[in-house]
């Protein structure tokens, strides 16, 4: 009999979606605590979801022996310190993006996880959609052939009302703009599908809102295998869309265009010819749909923590994301192309935020 992991969710907002996912997995997770610095919201969320206890601080959560896993959904600038505290407190950790504000911080968390003997899973729920998983399945089967190029568009609508929340749009508290907060999941899908990045050239701008951070960006990447990639982000789109398109030797694949669910079905798969189509159809014959989105990540995480499977998302995976952000911001500020990997001797290793 599988024992449920006892969970405390810290922070509202996206935390409510995490709670819904845990509730869909009652045999795997037991929601014990909701924590928020706003007492009224803490009690409202606790009552709405039938959670036994509401608390007002992370310190109170970490003092509890009946919590195995802490799920951090607080403003971005708090993540690093809170994840570190939770690991030092002997808890497993789930944390929303971005988990850190520099390569130095993510490397420190990798060391903290190792020393604590606990597991930390950064949130990248877009990996777990059956549309995207079909593409990964075909890649594992070896039927896609050479990768030529790819494009990722994250064109959303974020206007002044969105930025009325005090911590948004500020380097210190949000850690960055549209690259950090909005496009990070689609960009993670890109790297998950195509592998390591070799070079990054970027331009960023603040054109839609009166904020500190960027709300428009374009990036040109060369992947380690030679694939050429363009990434486009804009928060001033009248029609919200997320779209990923991959060009392989045997197949062109395109996600659905739903702004916040491009990883789910339907995906378009266009074989290059009849022979490629037959190989792709045969390769998909044994594809088995699995739980998706947050539920998909959390189901896999339980298996990993209890010893029945690999970690669905690791701090090493998050490091790849942080490295892309580091390279993009450094390129945008210097006008230079950045060659990866970025090591401790790089001027942006300690962070991309302006002084």
Summarize the topology.
Blueprint: E1 5-10, H1 15-23, E2 29-35, H2 39-49, E3 53-55, H3 58-62, E4 69-72, H4 79-88, E5 92-95, H5 103-116, E6 120-122, H6 130-141, E7 147-157, H7 171-174, H8 178-181, H9 184-194, E8 197-205, E9 216-223, E10 228-234, E11 236-248, E12 251-254, E13 268-271, H10 274-283, H11 293-305, H12 315-334, E14 338-339
Parallel strand pairs: 1-2, 1-4, 2-3, 4-5, 5-6, 7-10
Antiparallel strand pairs: 7-11, 8-9, 8-14, 9-10, 11-12, 12-13
Helix pairs in contact: 4-5, 5-12
Give an overview in words:
α4 (79-88) runs parallel beside α5 and α5 packs antiparallel against α12 (315-334). The mean pLDDT is 97. The longest helix has 20 residues, at 315-334. The protein folds into two domains: 5-125 and 296-312, Rossmann fold; 126-290, Dihydrodipicolinate Reductase, domain 2. With 355 residues, the protein is of the alpha/beta class. β11 and β12 (251-254) form a beta hairpin. The chain has helices spanning 15-23, 39-49, 58-62, 79-88, 103-116, 130-141, 171-174, 178-181, 184-194, 274-283, 293-305, 315-334; strands at residues 5-10, 29-35, 53-55, 69-72, 92-95, 120-122, 147-157, 197-205, 216-223, 228-234, 236-248, 251-254, 268-271, 338-339.
Which terms summarize this structure?
355 residues, alpha/beta, Rossmann fold, Dihydrodipicolinate Reductase, domain 2, 2 domains, eight-stranded mixed β-sheet, six-stranded parallel β-sheet, 14 strands, 35% helix, 24% strand
CATH superfamily of the largest domain: Dihydrodipicolinate Reductase, domain 2
- Alpha-carbon Rg, integer: 20 Å
Across the major sheet, the strand order is 13-12-11-7-10-9-8-14
User: Per CATH, which architecture of the largest domain?
Assistant: 2-Layer Sandwich
What is the name of the CATH class of the largest domain? Alpha Beta
